[in-house]
Amino acid sequence: MSAGPAVTWLVGYGDIAARAGARLIAAGAPLRVLSRGTQALPEGLTLSRADLDQPSSLPAVSGRVLYTAPPPSGGDSDRRMRAFLQAAGEIETLVYLSTSGVYGDCAGDWVDETRPPAPRTERARRRVDAEQQLQDWAAHSGARLAILRVPGIYGPGRLPLARLREGRPVLDPAQAPWSNRIHAEDLADACLLALDKGRGIYNVSDGSPSRMSDYFLACARHAGLPAPPLIDWAEAERQFSPQMLSFYRESRRLDIRRARRELGFEPRYPDLESGLASC
């Protein structure tokens, strides 16, 4: 008698996990959520309340895993990932949402998955640490591992409208770096494709890089808000937060041909105009 399909675990239950989970529920997949939250879950999801910062609370997760939980907020390593892997049971497949920030500043070059990580920030170094932990674990356990390197995520409820309403400035597009984005719905699609057949590292984005400031200008236009003031680099260094400056100091364009070829990933929102129209 068949044992039936493996349980899929959603480790972390934010927006992307919820979108992917809704698709899995519709397909009849058995699902569990590992989260420390107390939020109500849709029918078809079973909550296992646990805390990645409390290793003794973690169950021995087995089956398939979509891991979207963030690393800790400080340091160069991801102790949450370490605790999860130490507690893990017999995992068949694990998909991890990492960040394209692991590449660091690429001076606007097109970047594929063969480019070595060169993280410039703590948050990116934590992601590199998590990726390395996973690769070592997969080599030892034999599990199928897919790592998605994800840029900025946008979609309904994920637009910088508060910033735009406050009239906060953006860098003049002529001085702004290349940046990449992905619609939340496309990222959920990529997660499911990776669960089914991913193995290795994949860049995922809409495939249409643009200047970072163009994103804010496009959001304002679609929301019917005034365009934000434009400032130069000297003024930006005086006005922007350290985190915002760190984003503006990295420039790259993501090559997503591997995800297209191996996963069959094709964004339904291949550019900002189509994606913002859906919001």
DSSP summary: helix tally: 10
H/E series, N to C? EHEEEHEEHEEHEEEHEEHEHHEHH
**Backbone CA Rg:** 19 Å
Please estimate the helix content. 25-40%
| Rounded average pLDDT | 96
Shape: globular
Largest sheet: 7 strands, parallel
Gap between N and C termini: 46 Å
Beta-strand share of residues: 15-25%
Oligomer class: single chain
Number of strands: 15
Q: How is this structure best described in words?
A:
The structure is a single chain. The protein is built from 10 helices and 15 strands. The strands form 5 sheets. Strands 3-2-1-4-5-7-12 form a 7-stranded parallel β-sheet, with helices on both faces. Strands 6-15 form a two-stranded parallel sheet. It has helices spanning 15-26, 79-87, 122-141, 161-165, 184-197, 212-223, 233-239, 242-248, 257-263, 272-277; strands at residues 8-11, 31-35, 45-49, 63-67, 91-99, 110-111, 144-150, 152-154, 170-171, 178-179, 181-183, 200-203, 210-211, 230-231, 253-254. With 279 residues, the protein is of the alpha/beta class. The protein is 35% helix and 20% strand.
What attributes characterize this protein structure?
single chain; about 280 residues; alpha/beta; 7-stranded parallel beta sheet; 15 strands
Compact overview of the structure:
By secondary structure, the chain is α/β, with parallel strands linked by helices. It has helices at residues 15-26, 79-87, 122-141, 161-165, 184-197, 212-223, 233-239, 242-248, 257-263, 272-277, and strands at residues 8-11, 31-35, 45-49, 63-67, 91-99, 110-111, 144-150, 152-154, 170-171, 178-179, 181-183, 200-203, 210-211, 230-231, 253-254.
